[in-house]
Amino acid sequence: MVKSGVILRPIQNAIFDDLITEILEFCKWTTIINQGTSVIIKPNLCTERKEQIRRGNTTIELITSVCKILKTRTNNITICESDGMRYKAEQAFENTGVYDMASKLGIKTINFSNDELVEVDHPLFKGWGFSKTYLDADVFISLPVLKTHATTVFTGTLKNQWGCIPRYDRILLHKYLHDLIVEVNRVKKPNISIMDGIIGMQGRGPINGYPINLGVILGSCDPVALDATSMRLVGLDPYASKHIVLAAEKKLGEIDSEKIIIDGNFDLLRTNIVPAETDWAIRLLNLLSRSEFITRKLILDDKIFYPVRKLVTLLRHITSRAASTL
After folding, report:
1. How many structural domains does the chain have?
2. In this structure, are strands 108-111 and 117-118 parallel, antiparallel, or unpaired?
C-alpha cells in the first residue's frame, strides 16, 4: 500500500532556512524545479488589517525563506493572491511585507483579480475564469496557515486555494463552498504545500479568532493528508470538515491516518485548540449568502454591511453575557 508522507517539525531551536530546506527536500522539490521553471506561490493573505496579519496571514518569514531557497534553482517565481471581499490584494501584499521582500529578492507578485482570465471547463465556474498566470505555471506551491474556520471547521491547504478564484465577490459561490474548494484544487492541485503553524488561529477563524503559538511547520505533496494531519495535531477530527472528506473521495489525497506516514514527533507536538463555534450569526450569514440578490444588496454593500455587523457584534456580546449568568 502506497502511503502519503507528511513532515512535521518544531521551529524552536531550529535555523529557520535549514528547517524549510529540510521540508522542501522531503517534498523532493529539486525533482520538479529546475532553471527557468515557472513557480507560483500562494500564501494565505486573508486580511490587510495590520492588527490581524500576524495571526491571520502566512508569516513573511516563511514566504521569504521559501523564495530564497527556490531562487537557488529558478528566478521565475511569482507570489500571488486575489482581492478579498473588502480589500485589494495589493494592500495585503504591502501590509504583510511581501512587496518589500519581493523587491529585495527580485520576486514577482501578481493580483489574480487583475490578470488575464481564462475559462475552465466546469459549469459552476462558467463566467468566472482563472488567472492565466496561475493556470500556465509549471509548479504551484501553497503556503496556508493552520486555522479554525467557522464554516468549514478548518482552513488549511485545500481551503487556501479558494483565494485562487480571482474575483472579490466569490462569496456568491459560497452555497457550493465545500464542493468548489475541491474543484478549485482539481483545476490546479498544489505540487507542494507547507503549513504555517508558527502562529495558528483558534476560535472564530479564519480572521476573528485569536492566536495560538503552535511553533510548528508541516509539509507534504498531498494536500489532503496535510490538512488531515494538521487537524489531528490540534485535536480536530478531519472527518468533520466536509471539503476534506470530499477531496479524499475525489482522490486528491489521503485522509485515513493509517495511510499517512508522519516524519516527526507527532505525539510530543500535538495539542488541543478551541474550535470555531458556528453561532447564530454565522448560520444566518451562511443562509443569506445562498441568495445572490441578498448577497449583492446586503453582504457586498459596505454601507449596509458594516452597520449590520456592528449590531451583530452588540447582540453577540449581549447573548454571551446572558449565557454566562445562567
Report:
1. 2
2. unpaired
